[in-house]
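Late entry, evening session. Most of the bench is empty. Finally got around to the prediction I had been postponing all week. Sequence below, unchanged from the version circulated by S.P.
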Amino acid sequence: MFRIKPLALLSALLAVALGGCVVEQTREHMTAPTRSSSSSLTVSSVTGEYQGEFATLGSAQTEVIVASVKAGDSETINTVLSHPNDFTPPVLFAVADQIMNMNEPFAAMFWYYTAQLRARSDANKSLDPTVRDGLTRLNGYYGHAIGRYAATHIPELKTVMVKVMEYDTIAVRSYDARWVSVLGRDALTESRIAFVSPEEYDLVNEETRKGFYQGYLNALKSSGEAK
């Protein structure tokens, strides 16, 4: 009978536990916070195809930065790593992949799982349920080599996950959490962003950290790698 190898199983479990799935939440109020400070990398004010509040999110700028990172531009990568809290998760995803290409797996895992955690917590702030599907698609673009490495280097993964939790607890995110809204259908049909109030951000972040780490622990336990 065909059986999945334990490490292959762990890789699959981690993808599910730490991927695009978000916590089910119900919110009564739909408010749009003011935009956070922009990153140190700037392009001319390009709003792309989005309307209203969606056009203020800097999606075109993010695309430019991600493209530069994917091209291996060292200046861009160093700028991101010097100010990682200024950049949205898609940028950190791209940086993580490039770091993995540089054969620095520990750092690659750290930024990859930090990006996953932040992307999930930002999606949990959205009141557009279709953002979840968009996040799942986004996660599918990145981290394939990182996930394979993590599944075969469990001691390193365990250390990384602890550091990710510690870092995200004290780091101050200065990017606009509403970036994730462009992953949902509302971005194509609406002009206002359905999002929780900024006052709720810290609580959502904390709840997401707990769920994210528990999902990781469950994946280890299911694969027999919990020890």
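Two things to note before I forget:
Residues 6-223 form one domain.
Residues 201-223 form the longest helix (23 residues).
Will write this up properly tomorrow.
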